[in-house]
Specification:
With 418 residues, the chain is of the alpha/beta class. The chain has twelve helices and 17 strands.
Length: 418
Amino acid sequence: MPLRLGPAGVPLSCKGRTIVEGMDDITVLGLDAMEIQTVRTVQPKHFDQYWQAGILSWDSDIEMNMHGPYYAELLGNRRERNRSLLKMESSMQAGKILNARHLTFHVGPYGEYDPGSAANEQVANVFSGVVDRVRSIWGDAQEELDYAAFPWIHESEPSLVGIETSGRQELWGTIEEVLEVCNHVDGTVPVLNMAHIHARGHGMMRTSEDYAELFDRVRETYGGSKFYCHFAGVEHRMGNALHYTQIKKSDLKFEPFAEYLAEEGDWMDITIISDSPLLEHDAMYMLQHYDKARQRLLEIRARDQRGMITTTQSTTDNENLGSKDYTDKIDYIVFNSNWNFEKFVYQFKIPETKSLVIKYAIEKIEFQEKGVYYIDEIALNTSNVNKWYVSDSIGFKKLRLISGKLAHSKAPSPIKNV
């Protein structure tokens, strides 16, 4: 499963504080994604950094993304909507230079609309125009010479327009609203902000089953396997997100999400951006928990596989006990109880002369080419014995042979190999 993790902005540990230097730090930390924040508007002085970062991302394996203005009023009056679209235009232009894979935007408050189909239809109309604008900016043939140094403009697909879920009741952006609009507007992708979904759902994302239910709903409604997510701890009250926190201090834990991704996320191509105040530190925290979840899953699968092999081998041995040719090759068959002895003799007609009963003999001893196992006064030469099901740490003090079976008298003493 392709999984990319990175911070929302230049890493806190980066000394230079430029985008390119931040990308270098991300590579050193083992991360492979980054989101550039244009919180209010795009500053012209930053375009040089965008150009350099775009070239570096094209030549490397770092996925670059851009977040548009946080405050938007796409459901407001015409003046408010045009003001928001003007800010979004700057982000679209910068995303082209940056080689951004995703351009994430907020919708803003419901304004004069009530939650429902009318508001969703208006949002769909707005984002249909946004997608058309991104495609026209990205593939304008007249700018071929101007952007010859940036091959991704004409060799890659245009940026996907992301519509982010919101974390407050008065803002448009429930998971249902976002999925409905993205399902009707080609070129858009839902941006699943887990902190917002958790807060708006009154703390709903708590177990791996909650994440499974969420992504099943997204797959059924929206389709596809590519996902763009934000993750951070969050303080919330009464269905509203108050502010982001570090993951460890929130009731939104990443471990269930990591468990879901490890167990059921093979079909997904997902990018997760850390919105935490700790940025790259929590991004690495998420990566570590995902690796741990994958390791636990591999250990469980290996253990189950070993159990299946052991069961298959035991079944094969039991089936072979009914074959005279097989039993002729064995010197003795040791049982750990009289009940097991009687059951096997009855079922497989095993000769009693080749049967031994030693209680508590439960572990399989590897075949010994040389050596004698002494059980006090009785020595059993193992140089020709093919199989002994005898514990190497439990023996018995006085053993006597009765009708082809070994019985014991009292207290156990260790078996010694000499």
